[in-house]
Amino acid sequence: MLDVHVHVHGIEETRLILNGVLSAATTEALRAHLDRHLAGNGIERLVIDLAQVRRIEATGVQLLLRATRAAALRGVALQLRSAPPPLRQAIAEHGIADLPH
């Protein structure tokens, strides 16, 4: 299960706070939020807070990679934040580096 909580801070920043497991069974919920918030609504920064993610599978990492690319194409800064050490390692192994603590 994956819960996604959304906090909007004007056009400057939208924060998606994830809680649970990011797996093949749960990526669709996050994908819907990413699509909605990257669909040209003018936000400058999209932050995905991973502090409460207990596990991430390859499909979750792939979704984050696609979101990073989609954000860059739209001129939106996408930041992954607060990933616990095991999650940071899994994400870094798949090509997303430079995660803020």
From TrEMBL:
It comes from the Bacteria. InterPro entries: MlaB-like_STAS, MlaB_ABC_Transporter, STAS_dom, STAS_dom_sf. CDD domains: STAS_anti-anti-sigma_factors. Gene3D superfamilies: STAS domain. Pfam families: STAS_2. Residues 16-101 form the STAS domain. This is STAS domain-containing protein. It comes from Dactylosporangium aurantiacum.
